[in-house]
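Lab meeting minutes (informal)
Scribe: AK
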Amino acid sequence: MQNLFLPGDHQLYNHSDSACAYLDLRTTVGIDVCEYPGSNKINILPDLEIYESSSKVDYYKGEEKVKDRWPDEVVNKR
């Protein structure tokens, strides 16, 4: 296998004799989200916002009674 990375770069290594396909997807132009399972971190680039994966929360956490925060005229509009 040809090494296409310089020392210190993040690397992919195929530990088998089978072909390896790598797909790199971007969520938005200029933003990249990387998860590093070995160090339990998530990195948001280009701002270098680094978080521990253990701080993940459910999407709806804190949204249990969101209707109670809306004005009555919006909630009861028919």
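Next up, CB showed the second protein from the same session:
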Amino acid sequence: MAHKPAYLAIALAVTLASVPAALPAQDEVPSTPANPELSEGARKLSEGMKLLLRGLLAEGAEGWDKLVDWLDDISQYEPPERLPNGDIIIRRKPDATGDGETEI
């Protein structure tokens, strides 16, 4: 797949975003949490965030594929041109690949 580096970059960004910026030193972490409910809530929030990011990454990959296909398709056309009567035409490039049919 030609777009693998982009997926890897997105995956790396998501991974880095899910890691806290500054982790306390091991000797600073208490052995038992002061508030177990708070710890449990933070753990659940972290799990939920991971699931959300995985879901967004999966949907983003599908959207990325569609965008890349669209951009590849649009590269086969010249820029829009406005005629004196106000009509706008978009010509296919002479070297564009296609079946020769006009899509309306």
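CB comment: Helices lie at 4-18, 36-74.
No objections, moving on.
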